[in-house]
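U., I forgot to send this yesterday:
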Amino acid sequence: MMSPLWLLLLAATSALRPPVNRPGTALNSATLPLPQQEPLRDATPATAVRDDGAVVLGGDTVLEPARSRRRGATKLADVETARETARNGGCFLSFSLRKAKSKVDVDLGLLPPGRILSIARNKRWWITPAFGEVPIESQAVLVEGEEDDDGLRTYSLVLPLLAGQDPARLQDGRHAFRCAVRGETENDRIRLIARVESGDPNVRAREFDGAAYVAATKATDAGCVHALLEKAVQAIAQRKGSFRPLSRKAPPQGMVQGLGWCTWDAFYSSVDQNKIEEGLRTLAEISSVRRLIVDDGWMRLDRDTDEDLNLSGEILKADEMVNPDIYDDSDVLAGAKRRFAETVGGMYAKHVERAPADSFGVRLWRLLATTILKGPLVHFFDESTDFTKALAWPPEPHPSKFGGEAGFTAFIKDTVKSEYGVDHVACWHAAAGYWGGVDSPGAEVLRAKPTDQLRKVEPAIDWDPATLGGVKTPTDPPGINKVYDELYATLKRCGVDGVKADAQSGVGALGDGHGGGPRAVALFVGAMEKAGSKHFASDDGSISVSNCMCHSTENLYRYFDSAIARASDDFYPREPESWLWHLTACAYNSLLIGQVALPDWDMFQSRHPAAWPHAAARAASGGPVTVSDAPGEHDAEVLRALALPDGTTLGATGSARLCADCLFRDVSHDGVTALKLAAPNGDEAAVLGLYNVQGGHWRRDERRFAFGENATLACSYKPRDASVAFDAFDENARWASYEFRSNAVRVLGADDSVKLTLDPAGFRVVALRRLRAWKGVAYAPLGLLDMLNGGGAVLSCDEGADGVRVNARGPGRFGVYAERAPVSVTVDGARVDAAFADGLVTLDLAAAGEREVVLSWE
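Result:
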């Protein structure tokens, strides 16, 4: 059990990660170029919004006007005067008011009957899925309609967006507002309410251009949702011009390829040069690290925290006891402080921590924390955490930990890269520089004022360090640009190749009284991408900027150049309730995030109770594979299933996608459905992942991870499940399947089902490859059989007169399905021994790198 003091400190800082504001000068909109895309055309556009407010697409009503008026909300029929036309199955909703407002609620009407999936904010930084409901601050809503007489269902979506005045009339008003939706239950239906607001009472408008996008399509299963979302986001990018979809950007391969190691869960902010070198050394005994992320703790701050008293890492670990030596009971004053903290902490835990956002306990604590308890809380944050510290100016690596700029440069270039062979190094920073901002010339001390809806999502925002103590940041575009430019220039000189830009969704609170949150975000993201393009650009046009803690719409719909983003909240190695939910959140969040950026499923630890399912999910995610092991705390078997000895990872060639049969199912609660994902390995192969994640979930009412029943699941897979991974799927093709660990090989038609059981928290990884035939012999190269995504080792496959040529990556045990044993097998021209049993040809690729394998049946 945690001590009351720990509960106080944890809860009072559960929201700790924001650069936030109240600037003294107005924030100006960033000017972003419009994306170059072909416009979406429809030969016969039709008005989608009817006079009564119904939204009709393809003959189906996707938003039905409610009979009663919702108090405090304007009906869609009264404000949607633009009467937008439907094009390619979708339409924008634009609102026009009689009087200019900074905040308005619009009653969009009733969602259709059917299964509902929402993606909504659960913290200021992050989103999570919600099944069967539309929570406050939802950023995407999907509906699977009821089946009709032809066996078809209507699949519809609502995406709240950035909005503003018509750009043709007022350029400066474009995207000054953000929209989010929430649902209210009414007679077994859900009424959808859109909240459009600027975050600044002084920023008002009458017209809100493109506040939301609605789309629909008909299909036999939910696999169509991926294309529906992709087409919708392309249309939104074309209209808005504030971002580009992932399909129009290049993810930074240096931040994706190869085994990565992040210092965060290994050291937290106590990282230093010696610790990093020790971690690289012990990992190299198993597999070389190709990517290094130096997380929080590398930079010089305006003042240091006494490491003996620093609780920053423990607070973010979420479950360790407070350091008992903080207070010395022999000191009368210190003893009194302990007793005071325990009393207050006990009250917090009982009446505030898990209480409803509008409860008396929360309201009383808010009053106390911002009045009589404000001083003690700010003092504690100053003395015992990093969260009120600011980046020192000019930017510089920490002098005692890394020897300043000269020492850090030598360490990165000579030790990390030359000695240990690391290809890519990225360094962490918060959006405002550090948690408490940046001590740059002209910086002001700012305080946050989040929106009312966000305060309901995360009440602790009102008493976190940034709100109580404030942060330092410039407020003018030149000042913000200068911070990013000088920070990135310093890192570039040190040999660093990119950045992990964290705490981004806190910027939305910067705009109160000074232009609004969306404008503030535009300034910071614009400065970040401008500096990233200048200092961390690659020849393919990508920039090595990884976005993190960034799930608000005003962030996601601003990523014009950056093309990688975290898929979910952190992997918390010491919080068991979060382990399975992390997989669920990554999978479902990627529906939305994956349209704008390559989803990064976060780091995990290889020596950990949940290591195997997390390793499998990372290997098949299509994104980076990153561990955060402490030095010497490694599981060699897990790491060798993820990476080759030289650190090469076998990544899928596209992001993992939810399979049709689980997309609208509550895989965390229904007791019968496995989480199932598919990712492509080229045009003719895929990797399927099945995970028993039942039990793990997020309690929105109590704002915490929780765990319920996790029983054995009976489930199945078939090749058609992988159709979501391809642009086109041949229903007549036959496939070879190989199950990791079991060595089971099968030949399957598109709908031939394989039944299996998954133990609690269990998983299964299946390699699929389409069968080919050489001179009448069916075959399919399957890849490295002992790797989690072994199919990624098949680089190409061609047929010649002398046999089948497979370009493969080694080393390792390589497998090929074949109808019968080959007569000969060669590797790089030299004949090798190959075993054959139950349709599986196995051979040893002894050498690393690309190898040519030739199999002949003559």
